[in-house]
Write a structure and sequence with these properties.
Blueprint lengths: L9 E3 L4 E8 L2 E11 L5 E9 L5 E2 L9 H18 L4 E4 L4 H13 L1 H4 L3 E7 L2 E4 L8 E6 L2
């Protein structure tokens, strides 16, 4: 993506947990990306949010720390690095709300040309995977490494 990324990302548990800090006017906010296998072999769910005091992801938290694009670029970098490490895996994700899923669609749209050089992006629409289209409201997204 064409935005700055957070470069200090701690990776643990076999490349399944990525922790980094959002840094902005509100201070330092711990963030976590967690990638875990679903019930379908080869498909992995991506969860993202603020890291709460109990070490759990709060994917409903709203930080408003003025670094949204940097956070989204960091997540995109994590996904691409993950798929470099595990090229046969598929990542599935959606927002915790309709508004967040729309935000992800907008971020993908703005960076589609660059992202699509290395990954294939699909949108889930009415339960069916379709090639990504910025004009279609998606329920979720699927990302896989180009072969």
């Amino acid at each position: 993506m064409k935005y700055d990324k957070y470069t200090e990302v701690e990776v643990t548990f076999g490349f399944s947990i990525y922790d980094f800090n959002s840094i902005g006017p509100l201070g330092v906010i711990p963030k976590r990306v967690q990638i875990s296998e679903t019930s379908v072999p080869g498909i992995f769910n991506l969860a993202f949010g603020n890291l709460d005091g109990n070490g759990k992801i709060d994917d409903y938290a709203i930080s408003n720390d003025k670094d949204r694009n940097k956070i989204l670029a960091t997540i995109a970098g994590i996904v691409i690095n993950y798929l470099d490490k595990f090229p046969n895996r598929i990542i599935l994700f959606s927002g915790s709300t309709v508004e967040r899923t729309r935000l992800y669609r907008m971020a993908i749209s703005l960076n589609f040309t660059e992202l699509s050089k290395t990954i294939d992006i699909y949108a889930i629409v009415d339960g069916e995977p379709l090639h990504f289209n910025s004009n279609v409201n998606a329920e979720a997204f699927i990302i896989k490494r180009k072969t």
